[in-house]
Amino acid sequence: MALARWKDLCPDAVRPADVAPFWAGVLGLTAETQDSGDVVLRGAQPEQTLWFNTVPEPKTVKNRAHLDLVLPTYGPLVEAGGRVLDDHHTDSFRWTVLADPEGNELCVFPAGQGAPDALVVDSADPERDAAWWAEVLGATAVEAPGGLRRWLADVPGLPWEVWKFVGVDDPKTVKNRWHWDVVSEDVDELVRRGAILLRGPDDDIDWHVLADPAGNEFCGFTP
What we know:
This protein is of the alpha+beta class. It has helices at 16-27, 75-79, 126-137, 187-192, and strands at residues 5-13, 30-33, 39-42, 50-54, 65-71, 83-89, 94-99, 105-110, 118-123, 140-142, 151-153, 162-167, 178-183, 196-199, 208-211, 217-221. The longest helix has 12 residues, at 16-27. The protein is globular, with a radius of gyration of 17 Å.
């Protein structure tokens, strides 16, 4: 039985009002500015939510979580304030790496290659991390190109087709600039299965701040 369900994605931003409109256009979501200065993007389904949280610290290293998007062209993203960083290709796919107005990376895959829209997370052990989240979310770890079972399919509530874990050599050094929230009725069981409790509910928050076994921060909300 799944211990948690996807809730939303939460990017940090020094100036949410500058970066959120870019993502609203990319993802076809509606922006709502909060009194705090945070900006929430919403879609037709509750899980299609991005909550841009205001933080004081600027981006300093490559994000360990980003989105892969399948689009006809990346031209409109550049017109909206993005910039091209690099082009890549493998035997299976070709794609372009871009940055949003605050430098957050995203990858654009041309339509017609069979590439999926995806949430992507860097990992020192992608099969292990995929297996852990598959169990937590009641998803299925499936083979990616190359044969490793490091992609998650059938993730309940996830607004992208798959969740990819990608092997990298560089270690995690700072708090992830993009994190995700889940809904769980049993946060204690998440901890027993390997999650790390970073902060519990207190006078300021009514949710749990956790990290998965690889150190990726996420927040757990009770239904």
